[in-house]
DUF1566 domain-containing protein
Amino acid sequence: MKKVVVLCAVLLGVLSCSSDDNAPPPIVLQLGDLHEGGIIFYLDETGEHGLVCAMEDQHFEVYWGCETAAIDGADGKEIGAGAQNTLDIADRCKGTEFAAELCIDYESGGFDDWFMPSIDELKVLSLNKDLVDEALEKNSGKTIDDAEYWSSTEASLNTVYFQFMGANPDKYIQTLRDESKMNVRAIRAF
């Protein structure tokens, strides 16, 4: 009797597997695809998760955050740190229009979980700028300017990392956050 039960379970497993043969093939994501409100510029090793950039800049020549306020946190450089950095900035800088707030307030494609990229996220966006710009043009977006863009990563108490998009993506620079205005483009994770 036990052998029959095992055989039925195996047989049912085989039958249920055969119904999967009719399932649609999985979606394969690629850099430059329009996906979940933006253009994919980074995919993790699984190819199922990554980062998209917004279809347009959120502002040109805006301050990074509030003046002279010490920010606890906002120092993560790595991919995956931008969202927390942005929240740290917004938590400290209330009531003023600044880059991190513009990213948090941004809504597009039915998504409202946008943030300012960490310096490593911004660097990857810069490395893939040509591919992203081509996809933005194809999908009625606005290309990334050859200009300075804020990251959400503080370098020290008064300095912040930024990236000049379009030239030397391997090098990012620090600047005084209270004296400079730069562009900002939101990103989101999926």
